[in-house]
Design a protein that fits this description.
Layout lengths: L1 H9 L1 E3 L2 H8 L4 E5 L2 H4 L3 H14 L5 E6 L24 E6 L1 H5 L3 H10 L3 E9 L2 H7 L9 H8 L3 E8 L21 E2 L7 E2 L9 H7 L6 E4 L2 H11 L3 H4 L4 E8 L1 H17 L3 E8 L3 H7 L9 H8 L4 E9 L1 H9 L4 H7 L4 H4 L10 E3 L3 H11 L3 E7 L5 H13 L3 E8 L3 H8 L8 H8 L4 E8 L2 H9 L4 H7 L4 H5 L8 E3 L3 H11 L15
Parallel strand pairs: 1-3, 2-3
Antiparallel strand pairs: 4-6, 4-9, 5-6, 7-8, 10-12, 10-13, 11-12, 14-16, 14-17, 15-16
Helix pairs in contact: 20-21
Length: 529
């Protein structure tokens, strides 16, 4: 045990701002090893450090420390009271959730465990990895005998790509935890013997270590090397630096019947002027039970019965809105629930501006939390799936543009694979037109190269995907729907860029044939607040 004590006395760990500040108060000379996090300890130098320390035999004059990435703040610099800017060298991981986990709907479970452990998912995306991307990410195992088979597996379906950071969880510093006689022999990091964990400091697992302890590492692979992580962030998330500080949030908003009938356009203009994007909207007539649930905060008021009657008297407008910090901004925009309070204290709020005679409550509703928003959106906009196909004549750049349009329209790509369709597989998608004069022309077009086949999920997916595609004839699409996909990327009736199911029955039939393992999302519809 004495050897461990000498190791602790030799090098202190500096990995927080407070420890750095404490180290600056040392008298004499402090030697800081900053390279261990990159390439491990240099045993020859450690031997030299220990020899100097023992020969000098004077604790006040010579100190040794091990550095790990922290954000340094100049104590003499006046920052105007603002928080220090983020370190450029913040530690990130790239995690790839594999296709079998995505197909098995394990992505959400894995993400929840990562977040629960204190990590932060800074950005994420579902994508079909290219062969080159797989070879680059997994180059360390390229010499394994089954690597080519592994590449085929990784390019066979959607993967979930995550950028993960360590989060802001702080560990106790030396100054905050006095010596503990039971733990005086401090722990040495087994992976890196020179990195000593002082008493009171709990070693934080890396993301890879955490996934292994949770027995889910076989579903998710992690890249931790700084240079490689930066490279893959540029590959998968080229706008990461600009986008990482955005916190896009989806919420449910409702315009009650009286406001919807009289001031709908005025309200929608304000919503868009405030930077919200309307992902989905629909008219709904609330049942008595739904109205009572949404207005339960007023159930002890004398006007509750009249209020429920008004809420169920005609259609309300339900909206799914998205914006940076959307939840809080919507709350501030609409104001309090009471018209009287809004007029007295928040005269610029929508509650005060759009008050309706005889109705003492806010005529706009918003989700109370992100958890409530997710539940309410699922309730009022139950998800539906449809089959989509991107045809062989599209270039890779055109594919990327169309995928961007799909995401911007609020679709979730729940399944995807690239496949060179043969006649039998083409029939699984185009069974409705088999026997038509032009069917063989369609089959020949599909066999010219690989197609990208997807399952798209959102409320009203079948109709909305057909609307986004546009008319079958590209020239007609340019006139009737100039922003549609076929207007922009179609060449002819055969090579009109995209295909989609005509109805929900056809969609599920085609999906089950192409994606045999697909399980449609059937969330519990629960409006309980």
């Amino acid at each position: 045990m004495a050897g461990k004590k000498r190791e602790v006395q030799l090098q202190a760990v500096v990995n927080t701002q407070s420890l750095w500040d404490e180290m600056l108060q040392n008298k004499g000379l402090t030697v800081i090893d900053v390279y261990q996090a990159w390439c491990g300890p240099c045993k020859a130098m450690q031997t030299l450090f220990r020899k100097l320390k023992n020969e000098l035999n004077e604790d006040e004059l010579l100190h040794f420390a091990v550095y790990h990435e922290i954000l340094f703040v100049d104590p003499d610099e006046d920052d105007g009271g603002e928080a220090p800017s983020e370190s450029v060298d913040e530690l990130y991981y790239i995690a790839i959730i594999k296709p079998d986990a995505v197909t098995g709907r394990k992505s959400q479970e894995i993400k929840q465990k990562i977040i629960k452990a204190g990590f932060v998912i800074e950005m994420e995306d579902k994508r079909l990895l290219t062969e080159q991307q797989v070879r680059d990410f997994y180059h360390r195992i390229a010499d394994q005998p089954d690597f080519e088979e592994f590449v085929l597996f990784m390019t066979s379906g959607l993967s979930h790509i995550l950028v993960v950071s360590q989060g802001n969880e702080e560990q106790p510093t030396l100054g905050e935890t006095g010596p503990n006689p039971e733990t005086e022999d401090e722990e040495i990091n087994e992976d890196n013997p020179a990195v000593v964990i002082p008493p009171g400091m709990k070693k934080r697992d890396s993301l890879q270590e955490y996934l292994e302890r949770q027995h889910i590492s076989h579903f998710c692979d992690v890249e931790e090397t700084v240079t490689n992580v930066n490279h893959f962030i540029d590959v998968f998330f080229p706008d990461f630096k600009n986008m990482k500080n955005l916190k896009l949030e989806k919420i449910l908003a409702l315009l009650w019947p009286a406001l919807f009938q009289e001031k709908k356009e005025d309200v929608l203009k304000i919503i868009e002027d405030e930077g919200f994007k309307i992902l989905m909207q629909r008219q709904i007539v609330l049942s008595k039970e739904e109205a009572q649930t949404l207005c339960q905060e007023y159930e002890n008021e004398d006007y509750f019965g009249k209020l429920i009657e008004k809420m169920t008297s005609g259609p309300s407008l339900a909206l799914v809105l998205v914006r940076d910090h959307g939840l809080q901004h919507w709350k501030e925009l609409i104001g309090p629930s009471s018209v009287q309070k809004a007029k007295e204290s928040f005269p610029d709020s929508l509650c005060a501006r759009f008050a309706m005679e005889g109705l003492p409550i806010n005529q706009l509703y918003g989700s109370d939390s992100l958890e409530a928003a997710e539940r309410e959106i699922q309730y009022f906009f139950p998800p539906q799936s449809t089959l989509a196909l991107l045809k062989p004549h599209l270039t890779q750049e055109q594919r990327e543009e169309i995928l961007k349009l799909i995401r911007e329209a609020g679709f979730e790509i729940t399944q995807m694979k690239e496949v060179l369709l043969n006649e039998e597989e083409a029939e699984n998608i185009y069974s409705k037109i088999k026997g038509k004069d032009f069917y063989q022309d369609v089959v020949e077009m599909l066999t010219e190269g690989p197609s990208l086949v997807m399952v798209l999920t959102r409320w009203n997916a079948v109709s909305d995907w057909r609307r986004l595609m546009g008319p079958v004839e590209p020239e007609e699409a340019k006139i009737l729907s100039p922003d549609s996909i076929r207007a922009r990327f179609g060449r002819s009736v055969l090579k009109n860029a995209v295909h989609g199911s005509s109805n929900t029955y056809e969609a599920m039939e085609s999906i089950n044939r192409i994606f045999a393992d697909f399980v449609p999302e059937t969330p519990e519809r629960n409006l309980k607040l």
